[in-house]
């Protein structure tokens, strides 16, 4: 792809001092997506894009050249924000903001810088520079969640342990001593389990690994067998004999965490049904249980992208481990409460 021609319609004339060549190299080689627009009345019309724009946004130069940039990259409900940026560009003012923009593969987050300039003939132009910060922002949000849940659950578990220990010191009845000791042991194991989940989640978020084909049915079967040995409840695995998906190894831990949630949060002889199947262009793992469902205060931040500042904590890190793992695998985590009272958590993944 050739860079914008400084002597062409899109730029005012410039002296032939090598500046054009240096600008062309910068335009073509910079890793950030750059688009040059002309404001035609109030519409930002694309005049040139660099190779990084084509790669990041997934639109070729021939697709967008001469078209309204906003028609391609502005998500629904963000039109007012885009109009404000265009007005500032028209007034010769720079823009700088974190924004959400539509790409050919979905909405992503960017650091946006807008640099306006005016041609010799008075026409108004601008450069929009987009740095993709989606992974960074996702990581920051997930770390916030981990810290909030760890603080909350550590405080709760330690409070119970300390209280039981104090009562234990004052007890003389052997039966009461055994009950207090069992209580301390139980909550100490809860803390140990929380620590292991946190370690796994940290590994998911910080280690950069390529996705590999794995058999999700084998993972489901192994998780079910492991939990049958540790917990009271019925766990069945049905569906395809094999389900090849693109994933990281921690998918097995995430599956086990979801099955465990279905057992431990149901006090009435819990049953968990795990199923795996292929659907058009996707692979699906479902974990269904006959328990009371996930409270809305815990469900919304995980499944509906709710405000994590309103997060309440009762299920540990299991749901967040599942969500983060599925997102790393380019998949999606879904929730459903069926009419017959079953809770379904669905992992939607790429077939391997």
Automatic annotation (TrEMBL):
<dbReference type="InterPro" id="IPR003594">
    <property type="entry name" value="HATPase_dom"/>
</dbReference>
<feature type="domain" description="PAS">
    <location>
        <begin position="49"/>
        <end position="92"/>
    </location>
</feature>
<dbReference type="GO" id="GO:0005524">
    <property type="term" value="F:ATP binding"/>
</dbReference>
<dbReference type="Pfam" id="PF08448">
    <property type="entry name" value="PAS_4"/>
</dbReference>
<dbReference type="Pfam" id="PF02518">
    <property type="entry name" value="HATPase_c"/>
</dbReference>
<dbReference type="InterPro" id="IPR005467">
    <property type="entry name" value="His_kinase_dom"/>
</dbReference>
<dbReference type="InterPro" id="IPR013656">
    <property type="entry name" value="PAS_4"/>
</dbReference>
<dbReference type="InterPro" id="IPR036890">
    <property type="entry name" value="HATPase_C_sf"/>
</dbReference>
<dbReference type="InterPro" id="IPR035965">
    <property type="entry name" value="PAS-like_dom_sf"/>
</dbReference>
<protein>
    <recommendedName>
        <fullName>histidine kinase</fullName>
        <ecNumber>2.7.13.3</ecNumber>
    </recommendedName>
</protein>
<dbReference type="InterPro" id="IPR004358">
    <property type="entry name" value="Sig_transdc_His_kin-like_C"/>
</dbReference>
<dbReference type="GO" id="GO:0004673">
    <property type="term" value="F:protein histidine kinase activity"/>
</dbReference>
<keyword id="KW-0418">Kinase</keyword>
<keyword id="KW-0808">Transferase</keyword>
<keyword id="KW-0547">Nucleotide-binding</keyword>
<keyword id="KW-0067">ATP-binding</keyword>
<dbReference type="InterPro" id="IPR000014">
    <property type="entry name" value="PAS"/>
</dbReference>
<feature type="domain" description="Histidine kinase">
    <location>
        <begin position="149"/>
        <end position="352"/>
    </location>
</feature>
<dbReference type="InterPro" id="IPR050980">
    <property type="entry name" value="2C_sensor_his_kinase"/>
</dbReference>
